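Internal tracking record. Fields below are filled automatically when a chain is submitted to the structure queue. Please do not edit lines marked as system-generated. If the sequence contains nonstandard residues, flag them in the REMARKS field before resubmitting.
Queue: standard
Priority: normal
Entity type: single polypeptide chain
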Amino acid sequence: MTKSNIQNPLAVIDIGSNSIRLVIYDSSIRAPIPIHNESYICAIGRDLEVTGKLHIKGVQKALSVLKRFKGILQSMKYDGLYVLGTAALRDAKDADDFVSRVFEETGFTVRVLSGKQEAERSAYGVICGIPDADGLVADLGGGSLELIDIRKGIIGHNSTFPIGTLRLAHSSRGNIKNAKQIINNYIKQSNWTNLAKGRPLYAVGGSWRALARVCISQMNYPLQVLDNFILSSNESKELFDFISTLSPQSLQSIKGVPKNRAEYLPISALILNCLLDTSKADRLIFSIYGMREGQFYKSLPKVLKKEDPLISASKEICRSINRDILSGEEVFDWLSPIINDKDNGFMKLRKSASILRDICWMEHTDYRPEQAFLRVLRLPFMGIQHQDRATLALTLFYRYGEEQTEVVKQSCIMLNQKRLRWARTIGYALRLSYALTAGNTGLISKTKIRINNQKLILTLPKNEPIFYSGFYEKRLNILAQNLGLISEVITR
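SYSTEM-GENERATED OUTPUT FOLLOWS
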């Protein structure tokens, strides 16, 4: 895997209207995987619409939080620090005083982003996870809403609206009808009407992440992963209409919903519904990657930006468990003659599975199948939809075992027969490759596997003692049966 010249972590402090967050990333890899991540609700933008100033108690708490962040950063080495301010610091009359106090008390230099700069970073956050993203990015904060048009990974025009959750809750006096009118006054009179027709709306921001948790809970959805959680436009509208009727107390009782977000979830749902109506997006995709990850992505060298997020993460995991990446790539090439997946989107999954084939080599043998499944299912992969995530996890399950447990069955409900068979085939093939080589580099390329006349033919070299044992024959037969073929071994 290509490594960045920057080896020490990169830190981003996001001073939002509602929350303040510190995220410290490993800057030597493509994926923005946090080494440390913590946030606090300070609400410095509360009552900004009335007073024109930052909230006094919010400022006091924010300064205390920033001092803690300073202490954390002083205890470690890092090569980059970005302290970013957003809507509240753009609009408050006393924002300069706050920025000065932050510098005096912590030494942090706050960069207050313009609406355009904030929107750009939000778009880059989505692109960081989905390089070919094509749709409308909407990033909802406490003080503002950013909309960005992206086409095949290229950022287009953008707009910023003063309708964040804190502002809208105050200006509407908590009345849903008033809030809807305010939203429509901004959105429908802009140039965003019908802009996402036939394309997705990417939802970014803490309030919408909390909203995704509510949807997952209400749907009894089989996968507890927020990133790339997808709803059709119709599903979204039905769920959001229901959520907008729930009280904060009811919302707080839902697993995973932060108590300090529950108050604003009905308004957050309303904003999304209005955006779906106006933009004519055909589906909603929740992204956990936003402005902070966009700043991370902007800081990466070009060579890392070009890497595929899933393959890059797979290689990093392989390296972290002391397995050979090259051996996995050899297995991927070895399998190509019998797997026709060049044009149907599965080839990248096969490459990831080949690299991760020994992901549970340190686990007890009795638990490897389920542990492999659960680990892959829950890893912080980027740029992978939920069906692909479950398919990849099931592939690694079959790499190690056969009999599915209840947790595996429940998580695979979303997979059709084609995906189920594909996962079995690749999993069985990975088991065969290991039986042949014991996972060592440079051996699998001495053999060949192909399909001819309804036979799965394995060709082995003569005078190679490592291939003399019949240990692999059982694995070959299982793979052949799964493909509806007869197995045959040839030596030459």
